[in-house]
Amino acid sequence: MAHTPHELAEDFPDDQDKIARLKAEDAHFAKLVEAYHEVNRAVHRAETDVEPTDDAHMTALRKQRMQLKDEIAGRLRA
Fold it and tell me: Of 10, 26, 46, 48, which sees the most CB atoms within 10 A?
């Protein structure tokens, strides 16, 4: 698959070590990161018409991705 935009490594380039540590130490954080990646890949597949979807579903996916990213960002700042 082509490069997927909105990867956490791009969005939080200075926090890669902290992300890796939290994923290893905090099961909830690890689940958040995995859920983010799953939703992000679904958005990318829909945007590139690999798996087309309707506008309502696309909007819901993007909102879910944003909520997960906000929660991850909050945990990184804590």
Answer: 46
